[in-house]
Amino acid sequence: MFRKVLIANRGEIALRVIRACRELGIRTVAVYSEADKHSTHVQFADESVCIGPAQATKSYLSLPAVISAADITRADAVHPGYGFLAENATFAEAVNAHGMTFIGPSPAHLRQFGDKLSAKAAARAAGLPLLPGSHGAVEDLEEAVTVAREAGYPLMLKAAAGGGGKGMRIVEDEEQLRKFFVITATEAKAAFGSGLVFLERLLRAPRHVEVQVAGDRFGNAIHVGDRDCSMQRRHQKIIEEAPAPDLSDSLRARILAAAARLVSSTGYVTVGTCEFLVEGDEFFFLEVNPRIQVEHPVSEMVTGIDLVQLQIRLAAGERMPITQDQVQVRGHAIEVRVNAEDPWKFTPSPGRITGYHAPGGPGVRVDSAVHEGAMVQPYYDSLVAKLIVYAPDREAAIRKLLGALDEYVVEGIRTSIPLQKLLLADPAFREVRFHTRYIDEWLKTR
Amino acid sequence: MFRKVLIANRGEIALRVIRACRELGIRTVAVYSEADKHSTHVQFADESVCIGPAQATKSYLSLPAVISAADITRADAVHPGYGFLAENATFAEAVNAHGMTFIGPSPAHLRQFGDKLSAKAAARAAGLPLLPGSHGAVEDLEEAVTVAREAGYPLMLKAAAGGGGKGMRIVEDEEQLRKFFVITATEAKAAFGSGLVFLERLLRAPRHVEVQVAGDRFGNAIHVGDRDCSMQRRHQKIIEEAPAPDLSDSLRARILAAAARLVSSTGYVTVGTCEFLVEGDEFFFLEVNPRIQVEHPVSEMVTGIDLVQLQIRLAAGERMPITQDQVQVRGHAIEVRVNAEDPWKFTPSPGRITGYHAPGGPGVRVDSAVHEGAMVQPYYDSLVAKLIVYAPDREAAIRKLLGALDEYVVEGIRTSIPLQKLLLADPAFREVRFHTRYIDEWLKTR
Amino acid sequence: MDAKKIDELLKLMQRRGVAEFTFEHEGTVLAVKFAGASAPVTYAPVAAPVAAPAPAAAAPAAPAARAGGVVIKAPIVGTFYRAAAPEAPVYVNVGDKVRKGQVVCIVEAMKLMNQIESDVEGTVVEVLIENGSPVQFGQELFRLGPA
Amino acid sequence: MDAKKIDELLKLMQRRGVAEFTFEHEGTVLAVKFAGASAPVTYAPVAAPVAAPAPAAAAPAAPAARAGGVVIKAPIVGTFYRAAAPEAPVYVNVGDKVRKGQVVCIVEAMKLMNQIESDVEGTVVEVLIENGSPVQFGQELFRLGPA
User: Same structural domain for residues C37 and C105?
Assistant: First the structure.
């Protein structure tokens, strides 16, 4: 096991990793930008190093700064959290080259799953269902037209190197495809450095269902249950739950098995997430997130498995400590991302938290690095806290979550809580009549 | 089910009851003294009523004030929490007489278990082992001498009406018994209004093991697992855990069965606790606490059962929602009572909390009504927060708790945290070599 | 630096959310630490309380200066009645003079009709509570003007 | 310094996220701590940080007034060396004059030896870091007096 882990991140996920390390008896090193000097992750780590000014590119995203910090503190492993350098294969390579362990997958896996086309190829090879479409780059318009006729409209025209909702266009028919093909490729070239585009069936009202997975170096691959993250605003998840509600037993079993199969067939090591779109009784591979995810706590709550400790153990070369049979899902968990933003206009709302009271009691978990007097920095992402509840069933979890949100006091900044309270009380959420574009459509009708 | 519950308490337990009611869809009424006007329980209840000045005797302990508050808000039930009026049979009667339900046992059960001798009689009738001794009041010195010869020395000479460590004396031999008998009876008469005394074997190093129990109106009686609360300072529990560690399977089974039998044989309704002393392979009935206890969360964590919701359901006349088989204990939970007091001198430390950061993350639960800027009142008890952790095993729970205590920041007042950190790290605690007088002896050697 | 200027400075600092400050000017030194009282009062209640919040005055049931008069407050929680029985005349009306020790109303608590006596003298200016309404401890019942 | 100027100053500091500040000007001293600012600074670290905390100055790697001089700060994280190689002479000693742009030390980061140039002029008064020690971003390396 590692002796000392440097955490190349900030905020709640840095604190989450510190807690996991402490329970494993590992010393921790926090890194921080000048703006984060007084942050909680700095206070609670065993050691800390200032790595640069407030701008992320010069601190948390700076490979030399992070690696030097690990060097001078003699850390033997680096945990990247999520965001920042978590999926950067060059960073993972540099960590390894400096004789330290990157707590995450290998650089090769980061590259494989970082590219949409090679990720789809791996999924296809493992027998996972893909959305009808080109499955690889389409060379020219005529090939695109042929593929499109076979896959059927509507389709998404996507830049292979795009992501986060950028570099894609909906084409409803052949006329639109002919009109947009060249311009999308040209834009992709300009924006992402690669003009490769591919075609994929557009689902009108899909649910986002993902599977928590884990693999070790000995070929053991398991899933740790599913999650539903369909409640997204502009592709940003804001409410997540486990297990995904209202899936038939057979559909759920097929999805879980597919995810575990992909881990097994690619030899993926540590924890990750396999994302799918689900519509009706069909599911389609979307992508792999080769890291710990923001929403991992809901899976922890329903399985009792500490995923960050598992991730660290697997990175240290340990054998998978649990078998698939031992992963048992009990009860229901829901997470709300409390963001520092205007709940209706979604503009960021950084600033000092002048009043703070977090909810508590049975079945209530708060993962947060803030407190009264804390500064929500304008330089980084707006996640202030994750509020997670656990209850015997989904209805009880929703009631508990609404109560906990009523208790949550965050003053001095605006937060997303008012929006989330309305959404949780919405009949469509309660009755599981939602899909990935539900919130955006719902907001338009308000 | 009730429509509206008045909570005749304050602080964390009032908030705990509010949370349970909210999840059951019941409206809540908080009562408060003038000193508690800005308290959290007042802010989070649906309604609130000021019932008197700061002194508890004129507010939280005033029967007319509390009952009038329930009357004018048209509450249909009253939850007494713990302390204050929770075990006051006259109060329970008055609540019932006003057409409301007292959320707790019947007045008759409160009287039965409020008196040490009738409690012991009930336990004896149910076949529970009692400490060797008189089992009832001893009439005079000669009867005492006879009883003592049979039970064996050392013995405790106790006032029947005493409690909380008051009105008792250790007698090591017959000479001491002869010397102290009359004076103890006289003191008891003066202090408690009754000169009745009884004799009970003194255990040198017993552990305090208690069983969470519950009964319904249909004769169903179950236990909800055991707890160890041996870590006491001057008879005050400060660290509690579930399950009780290091009990043989057969001893644990006998203790659990005994507690359930007492509930069944007395027809006790709602939740309660049956307390025992354990030494070696023997256990002895101590007393019944006919209410929800401060340390109930550790049992909730290891069984997944919400005990306050269960208590409310049973008081409302519902049938026991779970069978004994469904009570399954998994993992290990430990609670620390964070008191506002000097950790070494134990003098109360009320005042304003100027800085506050509660720990969080997986397996960490905080039950507290304080926040930054909150006032810890000098009029009431010193409990500021309960920190509860849950982990797969006891060792992991201790590590998690130490980490969480390191994260706990409470400024402006002194708290018991430094003492508890030392105790948790003490080999005697880790290796379960402790008993009810362990802390007091340990403190003398420091 | 006179009292007025100091007050100005204090108000200014408070408005800007200052917790502590030290000000030195021409040999005058002013060091101030505000009571950390701001947190609780900024908490937003989840729901409005059923009745008006009890007044903050330290002495319950004692007359308090308000709007140029004194008030009689409820010394107990219960239901407020202006008369001993539905058909009986009210104890006091606006314009009536009230002596110390005179019964001014009933507060019913636990089925008991508690006669509430005035501990001040004066003329009733306003009855602040509707007959039959619930009253909290310390709630204002009558406002009195000079006798 | 009148109320208006103080208010302006407070607003400015707040806008820039300042928690505490001290302002001295022509004999007037104003020291302010904003509400809510105390929590983070009073947090007790679980263990002492490996190296001295980075200075609070806003401009990294820029000279800052301290003890009547200027300092050269580390512009990157890494290991501090006073010479290009173990046997090589140190770049600067106490008493040496330093020009702008002159190399004063090495900070090794990711196996790269980064020559650190001074961006101020002056005479080296004190070398604040041991040779071979780790340095954080913004950590003070040399104190300089007047050239």
Answer: no
